[in-house]
Amino acid sequence: MNNTRRSFLQASAATLASLAMSRPVLASPGKASPHVVVVGAGWGGATCAKYLRLWDPGIRVTLIEPNAHFTSCPMSNWVVGGFQDYNYLIKSYDHLPKHGIKMVRDWVTGVDGEKQLVHTRGGHKIHYDRLVMAPGMEFMTERVEGYAEGAQAQKVMHAFRAGPETLLLRKQLEAMPDGGVFVIASPPPPGRCVSGPYERACVAAHYFKQHKPKSKIIMLDGHIGVVSKGPMFKAAWKELYPGMIEHRPNNLAVGFDHRTMTVSTEFEDVQGDVVNIIPLQRAPQICKDAGLRNDALDRWCRVDFVTYESTSVPKVHVIGDPIMSNMPKSAHVSNNQAKICAAAIIELFHGRQPNPVPVIGSTSYSVTSDKTSGAIAVVMRYDPVNKVYVRQPQGGANPLHSELDFAYGLAWHENMWADALG
Ligand SMILES: Cc1cc2nc3c(=O)[nH]c(=O)nc-3n(C[C@H](O)[C@H](O)[C@H](O)COP(=O)(O)OP(=O)(O)OC[C@H]3O[C@@H](n4cnc5c(N)ncnc54)[C@H](O)[C@@H]3O)c2cc1C
After folding, report:
1. pTM of whole model > 0.90?
2. Domain 141-281 belongs to what architecture?
3. pLDDT confidence of residue 29
């Protein structure tokens, strides 16, 4: 028997055993249909809620999100670079109720895994049969001494959660004098969109080249090299912005003094006119309080990769940025995980076995100017024996940026928004 078949049978046996222990929750005459509550209407949560309803209209779905509209992180660097309007990032949630999703505009304050209840700031107590947590990530700002004071004084920001900070960073770059220094400090993986800081260096350099050609960008990188699309970014920097971007690897920011605008790493102090520090990240506090943030370093949530059910709290699934895995933390991956999770929940409600070997696809585009992008495409298949997603042959990063990839990237964004929110 080959390995794939053996893995499949072993995984099937394990899932069937767990199914035998949990009875199907199906609507029957006189019984309410099963209820899934989804926390967070970002890339993961909105997709999961929508696909649960599309694939099984018999399931009731409640989606809880505090914001009135969706604001996209993908493409937010275009706004930082000044070649996209901020309003373009803002998308409506209006289509989601048309799929029969009940949207609740509120902030989830707690999860009671035993009673299967979600508590909200607005005083709601909502019962679930299955809960999907998709609250994104939070920043470990305490790991950069002085960050909180600097952020309060609006002298530093991460701009890694699209919103007001995206615009503030853009305004700071506009106000920076020609000959100024823009410092970008990024953490090592795992974290949200590891290519985002390098893309940000490109868009800032693109702007400086036209309007402030004496300016410079210093990248303090917590990783040992350019984590993602390395050859492509380095070639683009050399070709389009020679001498403008200085990349200093192995240089994690650990402090910031907003009075002198100085970033400290373990090796040096660097002064900037505009400072953008992206701190280390972890699953949000709500995940910790619910007992979901359960890895050894108290950073991420461990899940069963077939169902995305938490390894510590039954009937609670976690998708997107907060999970511990070797998958990229990206919108595309959150969207894929959301569909795998939705399909698995439907199978579990029906007492059937979820797909034991799910496949994740991730394509990521990074702009290098207002006309060119670089791309990477990866397919990963779950290996149920080793319990890890394994990268499949083919695909990978294109070492060259191009106008064609820019066009593909634009289409990717439009398709992804339509898939999650349309
Ligand atoms: C500059 C930048 C560029 C990027 N570019 C790309 C790209 O080109 N391609 C790509 O694939 N990815 C990209 N990403 C990464 C992508 O944005 C994230 O990986 C993705 O947003 C993660 O999706 P998520 O659903 O886990 O979290 P999010 O999209 O952050 O959604 C979380 C949602 O949960 C809500 N929420 C949080 N806490 C609560 C609570 N207690 N109660 C109720 N709701 C709550 C939030 O309001 C939010 O709406 C980029 C990121 C950045 C910063």
Report:
1. yes
2. 3-Layer(bba) Sandwich (3.50)
3. 57
